[in-house]
Amino acid sequence: MASVTATNVLCRAPVAGKRAARAAPASARVAAPARTTSSVSLKGSKGAFEGVAMRADRRGSALRAITDTKEAAADVEEEKPEPTLESDLGVDYSKLRDLLKAGEWEEADNEHRRLLTVLGGEDSEERGWVYFTEARQFPVTDMKTIDNLWTFYSDNRFGFSVQRKIWVGQRRQWAKFFKQIDWLNDEKNDAYRKWPEEFIWKKEAAKGHMPLTSALRGTQLLEALLEHPAFAPPAKPKSAAEQAAEQLGGVQKQAEQALGNAMKGLKGLKKPSWMK
């Protein structure tokens, strides 16, 4: 039995060796594809990297294009054409334009004031100033032309529209508004500056400092100019409830007036003899 076992062992040994030999090529075959996979993965990584780089380059180009577009738009804004001199009344605004363009601020303000009297009609031209009732009737086209000239040549520092924004921002409080646009003299207890020597005729003056409108006799004229339809937003249409309330208020007022008149009539009557 021992010999048989040894023989079996000896006979099986080559088989095991053969199996081992067969196993070796298998491991070799596994190792070879591993090298191929490694090279493929490197190529894939390189391709992926190049793809990411290309996408990043495209994004960079897109961002540069957006930036260039914004800069071009800014250049277009800076190169706005000069305002057109439109007028519904045939008024010539070329002198005002030339004075503002030359930076002659005091002379431009004087011409501006003269033009307002022209818009007011013959009566305002003769008296040399404008009533607030006349200012309300100024054509929108002409008021926009005047304001566009001021804002354009002052780089949006002066003009009625600029003054209105400041006034509204100060909640329509005149004292704060005058302080903001530097129409008050700090050295004289915030008294109104004397015209023309104490006003600042420079582009570096406070925003909204020009054009000047006298408020010594009240603010009605200045308010009419700042509330002009050329600058103020259109009023919202009244609702049905608001219209009904106004009508009711009108009827009530008429009734009160009628009652008051009736009471006045009773005062003139004499008491009858039986009431004495």
Automatic annotation (TrEMBL):
Residues annotated as domain GUN4-like: 87-229
Coiled coil regions in record: none
CDD domains referenced in this protein's UniProt entry, alphabetically: GUN4
Ranges of biased composition (kind: Low complexity): 237-247
GO molecular function, one term: tetrapyrrole binding
Gene Ontology terms: cellular component: chloroplast
Region (Disordered) location: 233-256
Protein name: GUN4-like domain-containing protein
Origin species: Micromonas pusilla (Picoplanktonic green alga)
